[in-house]
Amino acid sequence: MAGMSNHRTVALLVALAFPSAPALAGVVVPNQYAAAEGIGNNSFPYRYVSGAGHYQQSFSASEFPGAMVITEIAYRYFDDNAAAAAPADFKMTLSYCATGWNTLSATFANNVGAGATVVFDGVWTIPAFAGDPGAPNPFDQRLKLTTPFTYDPALGDLLMDIEMRASTYPGGGLAGAFASSASGIGINRVYRDDGNPTSTSGTVSAYGLITEFVAGDIEPYGDGCPGAGQLVPQLSWTGAPILGGQVALSLANGLGGAPSVTLIGATAASTPIGGTCSLLVAPPFLQLFIPLSGSGPGGGAYTLPGLVPLSSPLGTIRLQAFVADPTTPVGVSASNGLAVTISA
Predict the structure, then answer these.
(1) What distance in Å separates the CA atoms of residue 183 and residue 217, rounded to the nearest whole number?
(2) Domain check: are 261 and 294 in the same one?
(3) Does pTM top 0.70 for this prediction?
């Protein structure tokens, strides 16, 4: 796309293409416990007594206000008992329920429906908890998913499947367990605490963890390459990565007064283009030509404010900026990449 006619046009195009991170949209299930304490403690599945086992939990579609791209899952402790940090090694898969959320089968495979996606596979160190007499505790036990999951409640209930390979049981009853609540209000579970993460069947239980699903995300990736003064341009984002969110894309540390181009595409890349520079967004991509303000090495910058239109598609996009700079071997300096996930 050739040069834009004015800043307002650029801002609108930017808003159409992406958003970002400090303010994240979250849905707590069951909704009624978003700001209220749960009814009891539960250590499963992140602290199985045997150390390993299989676990599923269902979530009613009626608890979700609309479609969302789930990028993070969070839990909170039930009471004010202190807990040490503990590693948990597991694979988590999200999918739609093949059954209703409250009619789970004791056979794990029978509950897995469409869209099954491995969203995390590795070790998560559950943060230590110092204890807090306040109730309820904050959702500060946070798991960032390595693969976002797009969930639309209009298509069915949500299922979480966890194959727990190794966990640490704290002992002393359920001290340090996560918060939980009874079913009949949007959640249910099947569990098997037998040391086998791939057990085929378990016990259906009217119980489950109070869970926060977080939508929208922004992650820097890759390395930029320096320009004048050996300064690397820095691409950043502020604002909520959700439909209707107020957002701003910013570039800093460029050559003052120089022309720049920001690339917006769907796929990440790592293609050398000369010197230490790499193209971090794969073609095809949208090009936004933006002159930088300021003067001198590191003095060039831009900030583009805008809104994320309600009609924007959900999903992840990639961005990178290049600044014309005659002091470099390839005639440009380059920023880091940004991966931005848009949610409702």
Answers:
(1) 30
(2) yes
(3) no
